[in-house]
Amino acid sequence: MDIIKINNISVSYGDNKVLKDFSMGIKKNGITAIIGPSGCGKSTLLTSLNLMLEENGGSFTGEILFKDKNILSYPKNDIRRMIGMVFQKPTPFPISIYKNLTYAPVFYGIKDKEKLNEIVKNTLIKTGLYDEVRGNLNMLATKLSGGQQQRLCIARALTVEPDVLLLDEPCSALDIKNTANIEEMLLELSKEYTIVIVTHNLSQAKRISDYTAFILDGQLVEYDETEKLFTSPSDIRTKQYIEGVYG
Ligand SMILES: Nc1ncnc2c1ncn2[C@@H]1O[C@H](COP(=O)(O)OP(=O)(O)OP(=O)(O)O)[C@@H](O)[C@H]1O
Ligand SMILES: [Mg+2]
């Protein structure tokens, strides 16, 4: 079942049309990787899915369905809650670890202290941070290591029980060990959540994703099971890209 359906969208910033007549479905659960050269529209696609596009000065025509309902028919705050986003550079709030994780739940109306404690604990466990930070929850989150900060940002997105996690190159600022940590965590999370990850790291897409979409110049060139796309791509441009001819 597709949790998100993108039907013939075109996305522009002013006169600059970035995604052209773009359609794709995103399956519930599992990991979908988005690959393609710099500037092809990957980040634009992600921001279209949680309605951040407008805030970045963009707009779209066509239709995006979330759980079979037009995404524009949901209150924006609901979409932001149900479709979380994590960026390339870790962006913890400059407040304590604990408050990073209670910020959104409090915003959405949870006041009960025990419930909040439970959310903090559960999201730290899910992101593998619990043992590392349990004694230091009042520490400033910006003092964590880069990899820990990124896991905290993923934990923060999980505090409001989203359905979908959009990750825009979440590992590109991290070393191999932290990247491996995050990949392992994403594989675990993908049993419960739908994960869409933009990555320049083709081995990463191969390692962790179930489906891969290759975008070139604002158009979806090929979208298939990861195994198939990387071993026997149907389009010559996909073959060239994964062989490193461009991008
Ligand atoms: N906020 C914005 N305002 C105007 N133009 C933008 C904006 N964001 C992106 N663009 C333009 O849209 C096009 C696609 O950009 P986008 O960031 O989606 O590419 P990308 O595939 O994510 O690239 P990268 O791999 O470098 O992150 C580029 O030409 C870019 O200049
Ligand atoms: Mg980008």
Question: What are the SSEs and their pairings?
Answer:
Blueprint: E1 2-13, E2 16-27, E3 30-35, H1 42-49, E4 58-66, E5 69-70, H2 76-82, E6 83-86, H3 97-107, H4 113-126, H5 130-133, H6 146-158, E7 164-168, H7 176-189, E8 194-198, H8 202-208, E9 211-216, E10 219-225, H9 226-231, H10 236-242
Parallel strand pairs: 3-8, 3-9, 6-7, 7-8
Antiparallel strand pairs: 1-2, 1-4, 4-5, 9-10
The structure holds adenosine-5'-triphosphate and magnesium ion.
Magnesium ion binds next to helix 1.
Short account of what is shown:
By secondary structure, the protein is α/β, with parallel strands linked by helices.
The number of distinct helices, counting runs of at least 4 residues, comes to 10
The CATH architecture: 3-Layer(aba) Sandwich
Q: What's the number of domains?
A: 1
Helix content: 25-40%
Q: Looking at this structure, what is the CATH superfamily?
A: P-loop containing nucleotide triphosphate hydrolases
Nearest-integer average pLDDT:
96
Widest sheet: strand ordering:
6-7-8-3-9-10
The secondary-structure class comes to: alpha/beta
Heteromolecules bound: adenosine-5'-triphosphate, magnesium ion
Q: What string gives the helices and strands in order?
A: EEEHEEHEHHHHEHEHEEHH
| CATH top level class name | Alpha Beta
> Strand percentage, roughly?
25-35%
Radius of gyration: 18 Å
Shape: globular
Largest sheet: 6 strands, mixed
